[in-house]
Prior knowledge:
The structure holds two protein chains of two kinds. By secondary structure, chain A is α/β, with parallel strands linked by helices. Chain A folds into two domains: 3-145, Rossmann fold (3-Layer(aba) Sandwich), CATH 3.40.50; 160-362, 3-Layer(aba) Sandwich (Rossmann fold). Chain A is 49% helix and 12% strand. In chain A, the strands form two sheets. In chain A, strands 2-1-3-4 form a four-stranded parallel sheet, sandwiched between helices. Chain A starts with a helix and ends with a helix. By secondary structure, chain B is an alpha/beta fold. Chain B has a domain at 26-156: Rossmann fold (3-Layer(aba) Sandwich), CATH 3.40.50. Chain B is globular, with a radius of gyration of 21 Å. Chain A binds chain B through residues 56-58, 60-61, 85, 87, 89-91, 93-98, 107, 109-113, 116-118, 121-122, 125-126, 129, 283-284, 286-287, 311, 313-314, 316-317, 319-324, 341, and chain B through 70-72, 74-75, 104, 106-108, 110-115, 124, 126-130, 135-136, 138-139, 142-143, 146, 307-308, 310-312, 337-338, 340-341, 343-348, 364.
Amino acid sequence: MNKQELKKLISDCHAAERKTVFSFCSHVPEEIFEAAGMCYFRLPYMEGMDDSASHILINNVCPIVKNVCDICEDPSFSDADMIIAETSCDGKKKMYELLSNQDRIYFYQVSQGTDRDYVRPLIKSEVKYLIDEIKKRFEINVTDENIREAARLVNKERESVVELMSIQKSDPPAAWGVEIFEALKGNRLLPDIKDRIEANKRTKAELLSKETPVKKSAMRILVTGCPMSGVYSKIISTIEENGGVVVAFENCEVIKSAIRHFDTEKEDVMEAFADCYQNTACAIMSPDTLRFELIKKLVKEYKADAVLDVTLQTCHPYTVERDKMMQLCKNEIGIPYMAVETDTSDADLGQLTTRLAAFIEML
Amino acid sequence: MANELPKNFEEFADARRAGFIKMKELKDKGKQVCGTFCQYTPAEIIHAAGLKQVGLCGRSYLPIKTAETRLPANLCPLIKASFGHVMEDSCPFAYFSDLVVGETTCDGKKKMYELMAEYKPMQVIHLPNIPDYDRSLEMWVSEVRKFKEGIEKHFNITITDDMLNESIVWNNKLRTQQARLYELGKYDPPAITGVAMNDVSDGLQFMFDDEAKYEKVEAVIEECEKNWHEGKYPVEPDPLRPRLIVSGGGYAATNEKTINVMEELGASIVCYEGCCGISSLRRTVDEDTSRDPIVRIAEKYLEVPCAVVSPNKRRMEQVADTIDEWKADGYVSITLHSCNPFAVETENLRRVCESKGIPLLHIQTDFTPGDEGQIRTRIEAFLEMIREKKREAMSHE
């Protein structure tokens, strides 16, 4: 998507009399916006934005933080109605404070862990504050019934992502990992959730209808780590051009966020929010037990031959967690593990290719 | 003629080294020790429990190599040094700590503590991200209470409300006194040098006899004030001398190439803001014993205007006030490499300074030698610019 398309995306929503709300993180409880009839988009990465980051931010900060800064300051984004500034990592939360139009920003508080007593009450109270804020800003009332209805759709969207990913469980996997990642990237930007669900289903059917391009001998790689959208093409293509195939993306654009489920029948919807969002296997959580459990499960389900941990420069949550992830893979699961640290430039492409090719060959 | 430092200062400057021996003596006497890293640690609870508190922030580049066997290289040196010391057992304070307390302040520390727990008994307190009473006090109270219970369990003691109340009063007294130390910088010329001010406030972390500590600081403050009123200033009066506020977090290990150089080149550091600066000292704990002491303690710490919280409006207001009150001519933000919270927030500080009409210098550094020359040159240029501005302002008067 380029700048013109982004601008048009927003103006089309406005033409349909729907407000637009954007977030950059999967901790944000999207059911609320769907329930409010707003167009909600999660943007993990956008190419071609004007550079603002280099004027506002320090240099040694993660490329996603810089990219979110660029998006929010880009003229093509100026009509966006609301930006959810989630307090996930340090870089992002501090960057949000520096953005020029603070009026459309809303800080949503993410907890520091999943297993403390305070976590569930905090999620519930933050959800309530967010609902109040939407009422205050847009005069939209969000009822429990709206939420249940919206959550049914959001659940369906999540399921459609998981189901699309699951086509890789077969041997050989049904598609190249890059095909799935790219399809999801495009589908994610459809303004209507029903269209997104349909698009994911269609992608799945299309990929299944043709013969798999993947050889049986391809090494099955489980990819985990930071959000991948800014670096996916060089990472995945390097894997898949060198004898590997990505069977699953644990990253937050794909499985991590999509395995969550909102219990629409739960009597207290706030409890359902807590259940759903407490279950986020993100490195911001300390300790991140859920991620380790998820990796164990995915290695088995997708019959992975190796785990590749993709981290972005200066992403402290994921880079510091590498040590534990390595211990988990080596000592507990007994699966080959490699970590690469990269950024959105192509400067390290040669080095990445050498390392990834050697890793896959060793398998 | 500038006077020599009062004798009292040397003890503070040397407190960290002397502290190693003192700590061993305390341990030999059966005292228990709680190692801490951060201004968010509720000192009232540790003190009420009869534990000795000591700062564990790493200051040496030596253990960093060891730390990097488990931590990424692109991480703040303080985190790596602190962790490396624990891995190597090379810091006596960490070695003697019966319990280490961490907070989920910045991402790097929060994730590092997970690894540190493999080496030391740890209690990690979760902080709110948003420093707002309505949205965060409840969770924060829950974490402070959990911390108190954790201490009770670990040391097999009971901390009563009376103990907490007593500790609150004592810690308020200490804090108010330390704030007065920074107030000495309001004089013109300042009644204390910035280097000495830092020696005292930093040294306090490593002095374990509360009463004696209080008396010594009192003596310093009184002596400085007395000297000033007698016209004996620590620096020559000079209308062109730049008055600086230094801010940032965890940069003590860089003092020689930063704050010392500023004063050597003729500036006066009149106040410190940020971690260990005036920020934490101006807000005391409510002493109304009819209210739950844990809630009162939590309220104070919720207001710590550290760069790890967002949106950090409280800090920006405080910075603006500090510039006015201390009549600062320039602001220096010292941040450690890869410290996202303080480094990213420096842009917001720059905007506050701009609105106040003073310049800001951002120094990013770490614990290794090599950048002294470059930093010195930048400080020189910064000070010259301020002098020029002052000269111009004077010529208009």
